[in-house]
Write a structure and sequence with these properties.
The complex is a heterodimer of chains A (479) and B (486).
Chain A lengths: L9 H9 L5 H19 L2 E4 L1 H16 L11 E5 L26 H8 L3 E6 L33 H8 L5 E6 L5 H7 L2 E4 L19 E6 L2 H11 L29 E5 L8 H16 L3 E5 L7 H16 L17 H12 L2 H14 L5 H24 L2 E5 L15 H5 L6 H6 L3 E8 L5 E7 L5 H15 L2
Parallel strand pairs in A: 2-3, 2-4, 7-8, 7-9
Antiparallel strand pairs in A: 1-3, 4-6, 5-6, 5-10, 9-11, 10-11
Helix pairs in contact in A: 2-3, 9-11, 9-12
Chain B lengths: L16 E11 L24 H4 L10 H13 L3 E2 L5 E4 L9 E4 L6 E8 L3 E12 L3 E5 L11 E5 L6 E7 L6 H17 L12 E10 L9 E6 L2 H20 L7 E6 L4 E7 L9 E2 L10 H10 L4 H12 L5 H9 L3 H9 L4 H11 L11 H12 L5 H13 L5 H7 L7 H14 L1 H8 L6 H11 L6 H14 L1
Helix pairs in contact in B: 3-4, 6-7, 6-8, 7-9, 8-9, 8-10, 9-10, 10-11, 13-15, 15-16
The chains are: A alpha/beta (479), B alpha+beta (486).
């Protein structure tokens, strides 16, 4: 892998640092320089942790100099979505309501990254509380797509996707509740993975919709994403929904190819993807067939109801998760004559429009007299979708769909119409409802030369075959 | 209102009966909180037993306390409930001492269902369910009136109690009298303490009772119920439901209808007051807690808990009553069992002592001794035998007992000798009676003529001669026997 040039990828950096061929400090300075040069324009970061990162890089270099191994991510600069708790460091969720709050603890993923030798370079921008598909809903202003700054980077993990695409970090972490890793990965031309629900601890991830939220990596390559995911996955006794199993093993199987693998084409996939995206998906099937995979047609009839069910379940959980921002114990408070008035003033001022819309939606869906018709029915649809996917996986090992219906769009294109924005997640939402893994891998370009992402889906805990498929697409796309 | 009549057998007013169901909240005696590692401890400095989970900080996640589940199973099994697969839900409402703005509580799938509690007098009260939930923090409202949040200047919140494990035990509406309600609370308390689920101290708030009260004509359908909060003692449970039933009967008789509402018991004025009506009730928007998984104790665990349960208070009382004989009073049996000293009484009997006397001794003199009195049971056994055998009178025995208790044991015979208690055998007593008759022939004559009061002078003389050591009743019996053969 090492060709004498300055390493940029996760695997490359870690190998060089561990073998004392490059210093973590040099790697870091190069990334900090890129940030200084361009983040004013891109605005991937809410906060750059230059001092902390430099101190950590020095520590890692010291470890290497005395012969100690800093770990599989030695010296790798990583950006964190700003909805993951960092001890003593502001964690904002790009919302005014968390103004001034510094968590007294680290998220489990932060601890694991550190133990693996990674260097956290900063906290990245997002749609407020991860609610959005363009990062336009941030209280701190939007993030721009580094490939075309007149366009959005996708969302809600737009800052994390942009940070990798712009070379500000070798990898980053995002959270995916309905597509918030995979869609921005597609729009920014990087790899983005939503692991199986419970594969990565949610402890310290500020909750949006607890039964759907999952942390995952962004990176330039499938192999790099695999390395990061291996480091952050595995059982955490402090998260009751964490799966009791060892960290995922992915990298060793990446080069196994797809010969004999059954790749499913969903014949009743909801329409709405633009022609350029559909064309790339068709080419992806052809490519995998050429590589020895068997393409099979499957049906997932309930797929199309995913969006509707999601926009009842996710806001319902959000309305409860966000009720704690009441101005009593932490964060923003607007003073008022009595407690109720203080709640109202604080929440009116502290939350943005999209967050308020979802709190209202969710509160309504859970209310007495409406529960059965809305939330209750959405749960039934959720089970139905899971059953349909289970049936499809009887015939196919992995499924392929678009990650996003379109390439990156322009600022303001969808902000006036919430439904248009929600449709961005049509293809990614079902795997959040089923808890199954999905990832977006860049596969060619579409309109205006912008990247297209193909989504690979797999059954729960079958990340290895998902990564194998993505790796094959990556190899053949770059030929 | 007329003075209510209240007896265990019946409660009725203007022909109406009361229908009462009780919801009892108990704090479980766990080491740590329900969902975090902070200590579950009463009385510490405010806001010292806290952590990110307790405070509901963003990103914090609950982890269920296994000991809390086991204690809930213990009390459920002690109440003959079925332990089942259960889930947690979120009960959503805003209040400053509710850190997450939702309470994690078991809702439609509680851990224990369908049990019962038997009360003295063959009364069986059904237990609908017993479910786990977390407690809230504690608010103190400063300024304003009556410690209420309304009109106060500011409020202080102590989160030490937030997240403390609670079990809510919901009875069926099977209670018909204030006495039954009191007996239910007392018996439940005894069971909770016996199985180690809770210290169940109403005065410290580790056991709290809400009552659902309605009235009806016997056989009619249930009336509209009111829920009464703030019942802080067994006594106020009885008083409050008595008052509330009377209030509802008064309204019904006056042609008014009872409104479904939550009412607050005011201990000072002895009344209930409207807290909120049904229309003002919160919509809690329950849904399954996504941060926790299903709790499904396997049969092996349930059986292990069942077999580890101690003998329950009712069975212990029955055993004690049998051992101590039919004549003993239920009150002493209850008191001694509640103190956990029933085993001690049985131990005295094991040493050959008289169980009936032992029960009385323990009840009277062992209040401060706890479950394991320092006094060797053998010493008490010997004393009971001396009293029953007539060597010591009841009065003398009491003095010897006091000495034994004070020194944590002692030989009754030696102590009696030290105190100069001579054996009061029948021969000596008869000699004293002879002396008394000889000394007061007038009194004897009057007594023999049927003037019963005259016996007092004779008994008094014997008591004086024995320096108070003779048993008055025995002397009277002896004199009566003499008169009958004269």
């Amino acid at each position: 892998m090492h060709d004498g040039a300055s390493p940029t990828g996760v695997a490359d950096i870690a190998w060089n640092v561990r073998n004392n061929l490059t210093s973590a400090s040099d790697i870091l300075e190069r990334h900090l320089a890129a940030i200084a040069e361009r983040d004013g324009e891109v605005h991937a970061f809410n906060l750059v942790l230059a001092d902390e990162a430099r101190a950590r890089a020095a520590e890692i270099d010291d470890m290497v100099s005395v012969g100690r191994d800093p770990g599989p991510l030695a010296g790798v600069p990583i950006a964190l979505k700003d909805n993951m708790c960092t001890r003593g460091i502001p964690t904002t969720c790009s919302s005014r309501i968390l103004d001034g709050w510094r968590p007294p603890y680290d998220a489990t993923v932060v601890t694991r990254l550190r133990e693996a030798g990674a260097i956290i370079v900063g906290k990245t921008n997002l749609d407020e509380f991860a609610m959005g598909s363009s990062t336009e809903n941030s209280a701190f202003g939007p993030t721009r797509n580094p490939l075309d700054t007149s366009r959005v980077p996708g969302g809600s993990s737009g800052g994390s996707a942009a940070a990798v695409a712009a070379g500000f970090a070798a990898a980053s972490l995002g959270s995916d509740t309905g597509g918030s890793i995979r869609q921005p990965a597609a729009l920014c031309g990087v790899v983005g993975v939503k692991p199986t629900y419970g594969a990565v601890s949610r402890l310290g991830l500020v909750a949006f919709a607890s039964s759907l939220d999952q942390i995952g990596p962004f990176a330039h390559t499938v192999a790099d994403a695999a390395l990061v995911l291996e480091s952050i996955s595995g059982h955490d006794p402090m998260d009751s929904t964490s799966i009791r199993q060892d960290p995922l093993e992915l990298t060793r199987q990446l080069d196994m190819g797809v010969a004999g693998l059954r790749v499913g084409r969903i014949t009743d996939l909801p329409e709405g993807a633009s022609a350029d995206v559909v064309a790339r998906l068709d080419e992806a099937f052809d490519t995998l067939r050429d590589a020895g995979a068997e393409i099979v047609d499957v049906e997932v009839p309930a797929f199309t109801y995913g969006l509707t069910a999601y926009y009842l379940i996710a806001p319902a959980e959000a309305s409860s998760n966000l009720a704690r921002y009441d101005g009593v114990r932490f964060g923003h408070r607007v003073e008022a004559p009595d407690t109720n008035a203080m709640y109202i003033a604080t929440r009116t001022d502290g939350f943005g429009a999209e967050v308020k819309r979802r709190i209202m939606l969710g509160t309504y869906a859970l209310s007495a007299g409406y529960y059965d018709a809305y939330y209750g029915r959405a749960l039934k649809v959720r089970r139905r979708i899971a059953a349909d996917f289970a049936a499809a996986y009887e015939r196919a090992d992995v499924l392929l769909t678009p990650a996003s219906p379109t390439v990156a769009f322009h600022f303001g294109d969808k902000t006036a119409d919430p439904m248009a924005m929600y449709l961005c997640d049509t293809y990614t939402i079902p795997s959040n409802l089923t808890g199954e893994p999905g990832m977006s891998v860049p596969f060619g370009t579409g309109d205006d030369g912008l990247p297209v992402g193909v989504q690979v889906l797999a059954p729960a805990l079958q990340e290895a075959r998902m990564f194998r498929t993505a790796a094959e697409l990556e190899r053949r796309a770059s030929r | 209102m007329s003075a209510p009549q209240s007896s265990p057998e019946a409660w009725s007013h203007h022909g109406y009966e009361m229908v009462v169901g009780l919801e009892v909240h108990v704090e479980l005696a766990t080491r740590t909180k329900l969902f975090s590692a902070s200590p579950n401890r009463f009385g510490d400095e405010p806001n010292t037993n806290i952590d990110p989970v307790t405070l509901g900080l963003p990103g914090a996640l609950p982890v269920l306390n296994r000991q809390a589940v086991e204690l809930a199973m213990r009390l459920g099994l002690a109440l003959d409930c079925r332990v089942q697969r259960s889930t947690f839900a979120r009960k959503n409402y805003f209040y400053p001492d509710m850190p997450k703005a939702y309470q994690i509580s078991q809702y439609d799938e509680p851990i224990c269902v369908d049990g019962w509690l038997d009360l003295p007098g063959s009364i069986r009260v059904g237990i609908e369910r017993a479910h786990l939930e977390e407690d809230t923090g504690k608010s103190t409202h400063i300024g304003g009136s009556g410690g209420r949040i309304h009109g106060s200047d500011y409020s202080l919140i102590d989160f030490n109690r937030a997240g403390v494990p609670l079990v809510e035990i919901v009875s069926r509406p099977d209670i018909r009298t204030p006495d039954q309600a009191r007996a239910y609370v007392s018996e439940l308390r005894a069971i909770l303490v016996a199985v180690g689920a809770s210290d169940a101290k109403m005065e410290e708030g580790s056991m709290r009772v809400d009552a659902n009260v309605s009235v009806r004509l016997p056989g009619a359908e249930f009336g509209t119920r009111c829920e009464i909060k703030n019942l802080n003692s067994v006594r106020s449970v009885g008083r409050a439901i008595e008052y509330e039933a009377q209030r509802q009967i008064g309204m019904t008789e006056a042609g008014e209808s009872v409104r479904q509402e939550t009412r607050h018991w005011d201990e000072n004025d002895g009344r209930t007051h409207t807290l909120r009506s049904k229309e003002d009730a919160d919509d809690y928007r329950y849904f399954q807690e996504p941060d926790l998984v299903v709790v499904d104790p396997d049969p092996e665990w349930i059986e292990r808990v069942r077999w580890s349960l101690p003998e329950l208070p009712a069975a212990r009382r029955a055993r004690l009553a049998t051992a101590t004989g039919q004549a003993t009073d239920a009150e002493s049996v209850l008191v001694v069992t509640e103190r956990g000293q029933d085993a001690y009484v049985l131990a005295v009997a094991e040493w050959g002592g008289d169980a009936g006397r032992a029960l009385v001794y323990v009840k009277e003199a062992f209040a401060d001794q706890g479950e394991r009195p320092a006094v060797p049971a053998a010493d008490v056994a010997k004393l009971t035998l001396m009293e029953v055998g007539g060597t010591l009178t009841a009065t003398q025995a009491k003095q010897v007992l006091a000495e034994i208790v004070e020194h944590g044991g002692g030989d009754a015979e030696a102590i009696a000798a030290d105190k100069g208690f001579e054996a009061m055998d029948t021969g000596r007593l008869e000699a004293m009676v002879d002396d008394a008759i000889a000394a007061q022939p007038d009194a004897w004559a009057k007594y023999c003529a049927g003037e019963v009061k005259a016996v007092g002078a004779l008994v008094g003389a014997v008591m004086k001669a024995s320096r108070g050591q003779a048993d008055g009743k025995a002397v009277t019996a002896l004199l009566e026997h003499r008169r009958s053969i004269t």
